[in-house]
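Example record used in the benchmark description.
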Amino acid sequence: MLTKASMLSILTEDRVEGQLIAVIAALVGWTNIRQCSTAEQAREALAPSTVLVTGVLADDSQAGSLIGELASRGVVVIAMTPDEACTAESLLAMGAREVLLQPSNVSEMYRLLQRWRHPEMRSLLATDDLTCSNWIGVEHSEALIQSLVRVAAAKDTCTAGHMQRMAKISEIVAKYVGLPQEICSRVGSVAPLHDIGKIAIPDQILQKPATLKANEFRVMQGHTIAGFRILASNTSPELNLAAKIALLHHERHDGKGYPIGLRGTEIPLEVQCVTIADVFDALISQRPYKSARSIAEAMDQIQSEVNTRFSKTLTRALLHALPEITDSIGVSGGVGAMRQPIRLSAPAL
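Model output (structure tokens):
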């Protein structure tokens, strides 16, 4: 009979990251999960049958001392660090049994927590790739995606309503672009994860009420790469698409976007659908700092950015899809008041 670790403890200052780890742990089968905010809480709670997931900075001597102390008591320590200078070798030397670079990749974290749930299976699972890597495509994919959506919503200031609407709009636009139904459904399912990388952005930047300084904006841009790293998977088509969207949703048709600078058809159609849906819903939604625009005004704004931010193909698809979109998300108002109606006979770019 396999011996299971009795408790998983999560020690991190980032509440949202702790929630993400707890979600993954619950999917693995952990039932006794405790979140700690201080090293003292961790010391009091942990027994030899415990696995501790903790964040560590390169210059965090207190964390290093904690790892060594707990490891000597038989606690399994999984150390996470955002600092590549804090090498795996140094953390392993302190007593950590596993090391992950933050923000944690979902698949990697799942496999680690799965292995340590049944310590005796560790060597078997390390070699049996089929057992430990196909989990996400079989029974957990939809549950995990929905859990990740809730994690993303907890960090972002956007409303849950925005996420639901832009998901529906993304799926509908994908249909009008001509993508297969399976892909359209997949786009709608993972679209709300496009900004999940923001869980890696400090709150003082993410929630700053004023315009970001240049160095702060560069940090903010990093949410695209962070989102890709969190979601990338070798086995799940859904998470692979979500990772692609998270990485590329700020690319522009004219090549002036980030983080890569793709242009035109280099940007996957699925990504373009999510980008234009996100912008469209933001335009027609009320926020504390702005009033909602009418559908006609939103389309005028999007049309003004054709061939710069958006392609004519996607803008045309959005226009064709408007009747279905308005029915789906429960808004009214047509495009009759558009100042510059799109020339639908123009060739697609």
